[in-house]
Design goal:
Length: 63
Protein backbone atom coordinates (compact mmCIF):
# COMPACT_ATOMS: atom_id res chain seq x y z
CA UNK A 1 0.00 0.00 0.00
CA UNK A 2 1.27 3.46 -0.91
CA UNK A 3 0.20 6.60 0.96
CA UNK A 4 0.02 9.95 -0.76
CA UNK A 5 -0.45 13.33 0.93
CA UNK A 6 -1.94 16.11 -1.21
CA UNK A 7 -3.44 19.56 -0.85
CA UNK A 8 -6.97 19.55 -2.21
CA UNK A 9 -8.95 22.69 -3.02
CA UNK A 10 -12.73 22.63 -2.80
CA UNK A 11 -15.45 25.26 -3.24
CA UNK A 12 -17.92 25.41 -0.35
CA UNK A 13 -21.25 26.61 -1.81
CA UNK A 14 -23.65 28.68 0.27
CA UNK A 15 -26.29 25.94 -0.09
CA UNK A 16 -24.21 23.56 2.08
CA UNK A 17 -24.84 24.33 5.76
CA UNK A 18 -22.07 23.96 8.32
CA UNK A 19 -23.70 20.90 9.88
CA UNK A 20 -23.54 19.14 6.48
CA UNK A 21 -20.02 20.24 5.57
CA UNK A 22 -18.31 17.04 6.76
CA UNK A 23 -20.53 14.85 4.57
CA UNK A 24 -20.00 17.19 1.61
CA UNK A 25 -16.20 17.06 1.96
CA UNK A 26 -16.05 13.28 2.40
CA UNK A 27 -18.34 12.69 -0.59
CA UNK A 28 -16.06 14.81 -2.79
CA UNK A 29 -12.82 13.29 -1.53
CA UNK A 30 -13.95 9.67 -1.85
CA UNK A 31 -14.32 10.23 -5.60
CA UNK A 32 -10.55 10.78 -5.80
CA UNK A 33 -9.32 7.62 -4.04
CA UNK A 34 -9.22 5.60 -0.83
CA UNK A 35 -9.46 8.25 1.85
CA UNK A 36 -7.35 7.72 4.98
CA UNK A 37 -7.56 11.11 6.71
CA UNK A 38 -8.23 14.75 5.97
CA UNK A 39 -8.19 18.14 7.67
CA UNK A 40 -9.21 21.65 6.71
CA UNK A 41 -6.16 23.91 6.81
CA UNK A 42 -7.60 27.14 5.38
CA UNK A 43 -10.92 28.80 4.55
CA UNK A 44 -11.04 31.87 2.31
CA UNK A 45 -13.93 34.02 1.17
CA UNK A 46 -14.34 33.99 -2.58
CA UNK A 47 -14.42 37.16 -4.64
CA UNK A 48 -17.37 35.98 -6.75
CA UNK A 49 -20.92 37.18 -6.12
CA UNK A 50 -22.22 33.71 -5.23
CA UNK A 51 -20.76 33.80 -1.70
CA UNK A 52 -18.87 30.52 -1.98
CA UNK A 53 -15.83 29.88 0.17
CA UNK A 54 -12.59 28.18 -0.85
CA UNK A 55 -11.44 25.32 1.37
CA UNK A 56 -7.86 24.07 1.44
CA UNK A 57 -7.81 20.50 2.68
CA UNK A 58 -4.78 18.33 3.49
CA UNK A 59 -5.66 14.77 2.41
CA UNK A 60 -3.97 11.38 2.74
CA UNK A 61 -4.99 8.76 0.19
CA UNK A 62 -4.01 5.08 0.01
CA UNK A 63 -3.28 3.52 -3.38
Amino acid sequence: MKLSSVDYYLDWPVSIKLINLREFIIANLEKKGNLIRWSIVDIQNSIDSFGTKKLTIKVVFAY
